[in-house]
Task: structure prediction
Amino acid sequence: MIALRQVGFRHLDHDGRPDGDWVLRDVDLTVEEGELVLVAGRTGVGKSTLLGTLNGLVPHFTGGELVGDVLVDGTSIRHTPPRELAHLVGSVSQDPLAGFVTDSVEEELAYGMEQLGLAPATMRRRVEETLDLLGLAGLRSRSLRSLSGGQQQRVAIGSVLTMHPRVLVLDEPTSALDPTAAEDVLGTLRRLVEDLGLTVVVAEHRMERVVPFADTLVVVEPGGRVRSGDPARLLQDSPVAPPIVQLGRLAGWDPLPLSVRDARRRLDGLRGRLGELPPADVPTVPGAVLLRARGVSVAYGSRVAVDGVDLELRAGEVTALMGRNGSGKSSLLWAVQGTGRRRSGRVEVEGRDPHDLGSSEARRLVGLVPQTASDLLYLETVDEECAAADRQASAPSGTCRALLDRLAPGVPGSHHPRDLSEGQRLSLVLAIALSARPRVLELDEPTRGLDYAGKDALAGVLQDLARDGHAVVVATHDVEFVAEVADRVVVLADGEVVSSGDVVQVLAESPAFSPQVSKVLGEGWLTVPQVREALEGTP
Result:
């Protein structure tokens, strides 16, 4: 179905000269019809570029030099513009909102079919099928901008599925989805592969979600070369690997497990080596309350997004804010930070309510990295953004750049921020926010676009910040990141707090929010480092 033959790609400057090294180099890749292919690799290594060669966006939209040939269904598409491929290759980008062209959910699902000239009866039937397939029926009349990030992602996937393409290309389709919604979407994609013979190519950093469904793994390596093959075989030595695979490596299992079910079938020997409980952690002793919120409510017209929530953030503590899509996490963060709308309630930070202050003063009191982090980038180069961040934070020169290198090494300082990958842009915004070292730091889905190494680095930065007496709150669907970084978890549902407590207690109570290690080994076990420490201490 898909064949890449000696494909290479590199960017060109305004004069048509090469601008940097090859992003892709000598790529030979074959994808059979009816396969689900997972594309993995470090942040910024070229995964999105590889996907762009399949739908014509590279080089017709991105510019640059593309060599070699790309064939879909036996036909070369190298010189075919994306608009002429829509019926053959459907694409969903990392930022769904940027790709919407209508106002409501139902209109967006129908738009692509209108451009293909399908009959009204056919369009109506496909819209209804897709609404049911992706659980969007209750949102059919909603404004796209009023949806949560995860809901927008499902609409973006649905708008492509209604055109019934032969190949579906998705760039981090589950990054904004809660665990249950992500499983539903991936289950749907798997059914499309098995029942309809659709070929699906997915780039995803949260590999633990996709690996169990994948027929083939494609690893894009630094330098632009690509390896492909059986997922279990390639993950034996891949630098990017989900927790379940890392656990299998520690246990010495061969072949490696790709699902929780596979791992649990091999537990007998490992349980005997580990004992009943993980090594005891040194308990975090939280400091004084830095932010206290009481009775916070947020409403959008008649819809209540946050309903009378109380929240305390303490010095030295990392708090995770979790809950399904649309539960009110982002609305709560904005309301607490002071620049977002608030119907009622009071927030105090060092005796002041950020809502009563000007936006710049509120940001200095409570720093917020939003879900659409790239909105905060406005200068021409990465170096300029970092220099401005150091000046505004009164930090030593190079502070922001050092943080960026820790999160995403090798980002060129001369590049425009909009030319970076999603993960690199997020890392830059995180570095800018962290340079200011606000007393209270809020992050909304900070791991979107970050590989496992980047998430480990971010966890270290946030834990260092907490140890220095700051309070950190992270709204996220990434349960593996929560298990690694959080001290406390607050779970929202329909705008209300339904669970709150120690990270081990809360994650153990919820099958939906349990990390992979906990699902395999049971209550108390959260991360691979815990298992490694226990094995190293085994006589």
